[in-house]
Amino acid sequence: MTDPTRSLRWYGGLAVLVFGVVPTVLVALLVARGRTPGSVGFLLIGGIPLVLAAIVYAARGITGSNPEVISRRMHLSMALVAGADVLMLGGNALLRMS
User: Around 77, how many Cα atoms within 13 Å sit in the side-chain half-sphere?
Assistant: First the structure.
């Protein structure tokens, strides 16, 4: 019998890395090099814990055994990544526009 959550595990893990870790690192590099307003650094205070929580939930979802629990954890991790992206990237754009 095949695992119905196999693709969710793979693509959810990749989504957390591509849409969570990469934007966080890029915004942190922008702040560190001084190429963005300094107040963008305050957005990282909220964004980094969201991405870390998403990584934890994704890891727990990938290593789980119950398909319902796996699905719930992976969806929560992707929702946390989406929230972190809105906070960091959207906040960066709004601060640059003002």
Answer: 31
